[in-house]
Every structure is written in structure tokens, then in C-alpha cells.
């Protein structure tokens, strides 16, 4: 089966690869088969190979917010790695496996603004769009132009969704409700910015703040908080609220 996968995907496929090396919790047993991809063509081939050979598979991004059992994964693990970025005007097209923070920093260096609030959120671009990750009242979905997904139906195909079709809401998206879709590429629409050094300094200041308040050198889920929205008539929660939201940590 390993040789069949390698022939269909065109990449080396490892056997019994320990997954603890790829998760922020630093736990996880072996993957029966394991392949690394760094562009959407490779990802498509890997997914199609698994479907055609009827092998169970999962797509693993940055490895945050993931729990993998000690027994591992009895199937193919497709590990996403950072890929190329394409800029056309104010549109930036990014592979889903690209690290969110690195992409945002590079975008700022290239003179684009808008996503700085998410520059220190762990994970990949695909994962961030899947969950509409965000901070300080903003979500990455606010700046999405379109999303390309691999659709697994009777056949494996591609579909491009405009922002309006993505169903972005607070930590929500249409991708959460369609388990047979895999985000392969995201196009962001960003504004041109002249104060590059100022933006980078703000990102660095936020990172230093996190270093002082969070044990980033220890295994963890990564980032998994979701504030609970509540109605104004719940006065007993008023003292806990911050701008109309109830911190999940209070529970």
C-alpha cells in the first residue's frame, strides 16, 4: 500500500511515523502512513489517492487544538507544510498549510495591513479560516476574498467559495458544517499600508506580552478559547463581562 500511495501522490510516504512530533500537545501515536505536502496540487493528489484506495485519512495542519491517541492513526495522515504566496494587486493567495503568523508578518513587510491582530495566533491559514480565528473583536474571515476547497463526494473535486458563501461568524464558518470539504487555498483582500515599521513593532510588542503571560515553551492545546455571548438580561454575569462577552475561563 505504501508503494501505491507513493505512485499516486508522487511523494515519499512514511510508515509508522510518530505524530507527537507534529502536535502542540507533544502526544500522539504513529500514523500508519504519513505524507508531507506543501502546495494545493500535492494536497489534492494525496486526498484523491486515499479516496481511490479507500484508505481512511486526516489532514493535519499546525497540530494545535488536536488530541491524537497513543494508538495513533490507522490510515493516511496528510501533513500540511508552508507553501508559496501569490500577490496580485491587493489580493494575496496563500496555501492552507502556511503558518498564519509568518504569512501575516510577510504581508505587513510587503506593505499590506488588516490582519495584524492575528499575527500571534498559532496554527495554519487553513485552520484559522476554518474556525474564523481572531482576537480583539476581529476575525480572519473579515479579510477573506475567496476560499478554495477540495470536495469529497462521489468524486474528488474542487470548489471556490466567495466570502459571502463562507458563513463567517464568531469562531464559526460553513467549513465546520461540511466535513467533506478540505480548505486548500485562501485569497485575502488587504489594504495597502505605509506605516510598515509601526505595524511590525505593534506585532512584536504583542508577542512579548504573550511571552510574559503564557508558558509558550510547554506543551499545550495552542489556542482554544471561545467567549460565550450572552443577552443583556443576564445581570448576574454583568460583573464578569467584557464588552458584552463572557470569558470562557469563568466556567
Automatic annotation (TrEMBL):
**Biological process annotations from GO:** cell wall organization
Extract the GO molecular function terms from the UniProt entry.
FAD binding; UDP-N-acetylmuramate dehydrogenase activity
The FAD-binding PCMH-type domain covers: 26-193
Protein name as it appears in the record: FAD-binding PCMH-type domain-containing protein
The UniProt entry, under InterPro entries, shows: FAD-bd_PCMH, FAD-bd_PCMH-like_sf, FAD-bd_PCMH_sub1, FAD-bd_PCMH_sub2, MurB, Oxid_FAD_bind_N
Q: Which Pfam families match?
A: FAD_binding_4
Alphabetized SUPFAM superfamilies for the sequence: FAD-binding/transporter-associated domain-like
The organism encoding this protein is: Candidatus Falkowbacteria bacterium RIFOXYC2_FULL_48_21
Q: Which GO terms describe its cellular component?
A: cytosol
Q: Which PANTHER family match?
A: UDP-N-ACETYLENOLPYRUVOYLGLUCOSAMINE REDUCTASE
Q: Which domain of life is it from?
A: Bacteria
